Amino acid sequence: MNGASRLRFASRMDAVAPSAVREILKAAEQPDILSLAGGLPAPELFPAAEIARAYADVLAHEPGGALQYGVTEGFGPLREWIAQRMTSQGIDTDASRVLITHGSQQGIDLMARVFLDAGDCVAVENPTYLAAIQAFNGFQAKVCAVESDDDGMLPDALEEALRTRRPKFLYVIPEFQNPKGTSFSLERRRRLLSLAAAHGVPVLEDNPYGELRFRGTSLPPLAALGSDATVVYLGTFSKTLAPGLRIGWMVAPPEIYRKLVISKQAADLHTATLAQRAAANLLERFDYEGHLKTLRAFYGERCETMLEGLKAPAFKAARWATPEGGLFLWIRLPPGLDDLALFQRALARKVAVVPGRSFFCEPGHHGFVRLNFSNVAPAKIQEALRRLGEAMAEGIREA
Ligand SMILES: Cc1ncc(COP(=O)(O)O)c(C=O)c1O
Questions:
Q1: What's the rounded Cα separation, in Å, for the pair 274 and 66?
Q2: Which of 108, 159, 200, 224 gives 220 a disulfide partner, CB atoms 3.0 to 4.6 angstroms apart?
Q3: Helix, strand, coil percentages in the chain from 3-state DSSP, rounded to 5
């Protein structure tokens, strides 16, 4: 376009170059590909008829409110419902501390807006959720990766990062992490909170998958552990109702809450009133608990199918932790196998996985792939793993 070369973009856009892996994954979007690469919930579980009824009801009975501007904090009855659910999970809050957001992704962005100046540090698990890294990069922050194992951040590494890097906040996904599917142990949760409190660093707890536990015993969220640490909690209906609703929430202490509200006002005034009212209407009449039970059983079965498929001899030298919930399984490849090379070999067999390197903050991690089991029918999971096994065996032979 004429004059495009003269456009003077903000320097922060330099840090948000398109991810190389995202570009590669576009190749995996053709219809004949069996994809374990996505991260989507199963669409057959969206309560579409109930959502349609809720929208119709709201438009018939409260069109003025549903189609009008609303307050930035969100629709009162929805905030009340969320506050009660949070309280039932041990998080001591009321509606005045609940801010409705456009998905939890907006919560990550708002937290970054409120806390990060260019050059500031934010500490994250290594690996972590790709779009959080992108959000922090967008504020020209330095993302400091804290070494983690299957029980969460390593306390010594965290302490060192807190002392030497002085992060503005910690970003963690303690339950069924994306990409690893693993959760923080109770001891690691407590250690993280006591270290965060000792260093006066707030914690952003992102919990989109916590309701999707299909085995094992529930652990309290960080925000429910009653520590001296400041915890800002992020929740969402994306994985329990439907991501297209774009409704998430933040629970924050008053001082941070006020700043989040001002930032959200500048970003988008408020979350879509119609969607908020429809969600509130739905939750009033809908068997949410029953729906969650269905989701858990459904995803648990798909995860089981994946674990069965991974028993094939081709995967003998690979390693993984058994997920207790969520949508993902994280594979450590046999020594010498490269994630991108495996991706290419799998793609040649019309199977897509995500090369693990995309979830790390720094280069040099080439030995992992992420598999998704939520959005693939069991028979397709079996076939995809059969082909992935072939790709892996070929990679091992030629390594
Ligand atoms: C860890 C994590 N946080 C946040 C999000 C964004 O979810 P939402 O649809 O609520 O914006 C995702 C989506 O996959 C995620 O995996």
A1: 5
A2: 224
A3: 50, 15, 35
Question: Are 295 and 212 within 8 A, CB to CB?
Answer: yes
Confidence check: pLDDT of 1 > 60: no
For the segment 245-278, what is each residue's pLDDT rounded down to a tens digit?
999 999 999 999 999 999 999 999 999 999 999 9
Q: What is the mean pLDDT of residues 289-298?
A: 98
Best residue among 111, 233, 236 to mutate for probing ligand 1's pocket (most ligand atoms within 8 Å of CB) is 236
Q: Is the peptide bond before 335 cis (omega within 30 degrees of 0)?
A: no
Report how far ligand 1's centroid is from the alpha carbon of 105 (Å): 6
Whether 66 shows a pLDDT value over 90: the answer reads yes
Q: Give the number of the atom of ligand 1 that is nearest the alpha carbon of residue 243.
A: 9
Q: How far is the CA of 104 from the centre of ligand 1 (A)?
A: 6
Give the number of the atom of ligand 1 that is nearest the alpha carbon of residue 108. 4
Q: Which two tokens stand for residue 299?
A: 């995803």
Number of H helices and E strands in the chain, helices first, is 13, 13
Q: Could you tell me the distance, in angstroms and rounded to a whole number, from the CA of residue 8 to the centre of ligand 1?
A: 31
CA distance 387 to 90: 44
Closest CA to 176 of 81, 300, 291, 93: 300
